[in-house]
Design goal:
Blueprint: H1 4-16, H2 22-33, H3 39-49, E1 57-61, E2 68-72, E3 77-84, H4 93-100, E4 107-120, E5 126-138, H5 146-160, E6 176-183, H6 196-199, H7 205-226, E7 228-236, H8 260-278, E8 284-290, H9 296-309, E9 316-318, E10 326-330, E11 333-337, H10 344-354, H11 356-360, E12 364-369, E13 376-379, E14 385-388, H12 397-401, E15 411-418, E16 422-430, E17 439-443
Parallel strand pairs: 6-7, 7-8, 8-9, 11-12, 12-14
Antiparallel strand pairs: 1-2, 2-3, 3-5, 4-5, 6-15, 10-11, 13-14, 15-16, 16-17
Length: about 450
C-alpha cells in the first residue's frame, strides 16, 4: 500500500497531465487515508515538496467571473479571487491570506491589488465585492542565531524533560582503558521517502528505525570482542532529512513521510534506546555533536534533549561546545569532525589553526566528514587523514533523476582506536536487500 505522500506525488502528476483536478485528488486522499485535506492543501504540498526547479506552470480555472489561479512548480501561486468586502480583513495581510483560503503561517504575499464593485441580488440588496489579484510564495522562516535557538531549546527541555533515574554504575575492570570505540554520525535522513516505482528501492522512517538500531546492535557486538573502555558517539550529520518546515537549513524543500514532531520523537527515541544499550557495555561514553546542512536546528535540539535526559548519568558525558567543527583527543589520537559541506581544501587547512593545541599534542589525526553519502579516504600532506563516512539512506527521486550515488550501498562504519597506535580497525555495516548479512572489518 502506498503512503499518503507517495500517492500524492502520483496523483499530482495526473493533475499536471490534465487527467484530474486538485479537488479530485483531495477527495481521493481523504477517502483512502481518512484525512480532511482541501484542494489548496494538497496542491501546495505537492508543489512545495517537488524538488525540481523548472519554471513550468499549471493553470487551474476557478468557477466564477474573472477568477483564475496559476501554480508554479517552485511553489509560487498567482491568482485572482472574488470575495465579499470585510472591514476586518482588508488592510491585514495575515487575515487576508486566511480569507483567501491560505494558511498565513505557510504563505506570504509577493504583491496584492484589489478592485471593488457592487453586485445587486435577487433579494433587492447590494453586495460589495472585491476582485483580489495577488501572488504568494511559500513562507521561509527567517534564520535565528544558533546561540538563541540553543538557549531557548535548553531552557524548554530542562523545564520539561526530567533526567532519567540511574543507578550508580560499577566500573568494569575487564575493559581496556587504552581503547576507544567510535560511532560516527549516522547519516540517516530520517523522514526521507523513496519508493520502488521511482527509484527501484523503498525507504521510509520505519526502515530508518531498523537501520539505526542495527548500528547500535553491531556496535555492541563489536564491543564484546574489542573490550573498549570508552565509546565516542557523534550525533548529527543529516540524521534528520529537514527542519520543521520541511526544508533544509538553507531553504531547499524536502519530501518527507512524517511530520516534524513525529520525526523528532522517532529520532529522540532511537538515540535514547541506543545510549541506554551502549551504557551497559562501556565505562565511559562521550557524546559530541556534528550537525548537518539538512537539519542543523533539529539536530541541535536532539542533542540538547538527550543531554537533559542523561544529565545525572555518571557514564554518559555531553559537551557544551556546539560549533559545526569539533575536536576530540584520545591519547595520541586527534579526531576532528565537520559535516563536510564547506570547501574541503579550506576546511583541512583550517584544522591546525583552530585546534592548534589538540593538533600539536597528537600524532594520529583524522578529520571525519559526511555529506556526500560515500566512503572516501584521502591522506593529506599536512599530517591529517581526511575520512568521509558513508550514509545508511537510499536515494530519493531527486538524487536518482540527477544520477547521484547510483550503485552506492547504504552502510555505516564503527572504528576502534588505540591511544598509542591510532586506528586499529574499521568495521562496516551494510544495508539493503543485496547486502543482507554482509559485515566486514578492515584491520590496520
Amino acid at each position: 500500500m502506498l503512503l499518503l505522500e507517495e500517492q500524492l506525488i502520483l496523483l499530482g502528476e495526473e493533475v499536471k497531465k490534465g487527467n484530474m483536478t486538485w479537488k479530485e485528488v483531495a477527495d481521493r486522499l481523504n477517502k483512502e487515508f481518512g484525512e480532511n485535506l482541501s484542494k489548496d492543501a494538497v496542491r501546495k504540498r505537492f508543489y512545495v515538496r517537488d524538488r525540481r526547479n523548472g519554471g513550468e506552470e499549471l493553470n487551474t480555472e476557478i468557477s466564477g467571473a474573472g477568477e483564475y489561479e496559476t501554480v508554479y512548480e517552485n511553489g509560487m501561486v498567482e491568482a485572482q479571487k472574488v470575495v465579499e468586502y470585510s472591514k476586518e480583513v482588508f488592510g491585514d495581510k495575515r487575515k487576508m491570506l486566511e480569507y483567501l483560503g491560505y494558511n498565513a503561517d505557510e504563505w506570504e504575499f509577493v504583491f496584492l491589488t484589489t478592485s471593488m464593485w457592487n453586485q445587486h441580488t435577487k433579494e433587492q440588496t447590494t453586495k460589495q465585492l472585491y476582485a483580489v489579484k495577488f501572488k504568494i510564495k511559500p513562507l521561509i522562516v527567517k534564520d535565528v542565531s544558533i546561540d538563541t535557538a540553543i538557549n531557548v531549546a535548553r531552557d524548554v527541555f530542562k523545564e520539561n524533560i526530567q533526567p532519567l533515574k540511574v543507578v550508580k554504575s560499577r566500573k568494569n575492570k575487564s575493559l581496556d582503558p587504552d581503547k576507544l570505540l567510535f560511532i560516527p554520525q549516522i547519516e540517516a535522513h530520517l523522514g526521507k521517502i523513496s519508493n520502488e516505482i521511482e527509484t527501484g528501492v523503498k525507504y521510509d522512517h520505519k526502515i530508518v528505525e531498523e537501520r539505526v538500531l542495527k548500528v547500535f546492535e553491531e556496535a555492541i557486538s563489536l564491543q564484546e570482542r574489542e573490550k573498549c573502555d570508552t565509546c565516542l558517539l557523534v550525533v548529527g550529520g543529516d540524521f534528520f532529512n529537514s527542519e520543521s518546515n520541511s526544508q533544509t537549513t538553507g531553504g531547499t524543500p524536502q519530501h518527507n513521510d512524517v511530520r516534524y514532531k513525529d520525526m523528532f520523537n522517532i529520532g529522540l527515541n532511537l538515540y535514547l534506546k541506543g545510549l541506554l544499550s551502549l551504557k551497559e557495555h562501556f565505562n565511559h561514553i562521550d557524546v559530541k555533536i556534528c550537525a548537518g546542512n539538512h537539519s542543523r536546528a533539529m539536530e541541535y535540539f536532539l542533542y540538547i534533549a538527550l543531554s537533559c535526559y542523561f544529565a545525572k548519568d555518571d557514564k554518559i558525558a555531553f559537551c557544551e561546545n556546539y560549533k559545526d567543527t569539533q575536536s576530540y583527543v584520545f591519547g595520541k589520537c586527534g579526531l576532528f569532525f565537520n559535516h563536510g559541506d564547506p570547501n574541503q581544501k579550506r576546511l583541512v587547512a583550517s584544522i591546525p589553526a583552530e585546534f592548534y593545541e589538540d593538533y600539536g599534542k597528537t600524532q594520529f589525526r583524522y578529520l571525519f566528514l559526511g555529506h556526500l553519502h560515500k566512503l572516501e579516504v584521502i591522506n593529506s600532506e599536512n599530517g591529517i587523514t581526511v575520512h568521509r563516512v558513508p550514509a545508511i539512506c537510499e536515494n530519493d527521486n531527486w538524487h536518482y533523476q540527477n544520477r547521484f550515488g547510483i550503485g552506492n550501498i547504504p552502510q555505516h562504519e564503527i572504528m576502534v582506536f588505540d591511544k598509542e597506535l591510532g586506528m586499529l580497525n574499521d568495521n562496516f555495516i551494510y544495508f539493503g536487500e543485496k547486502s543482507k548479512g554482509r559485515q566486514k572489518t578492515l584491520k590496520k
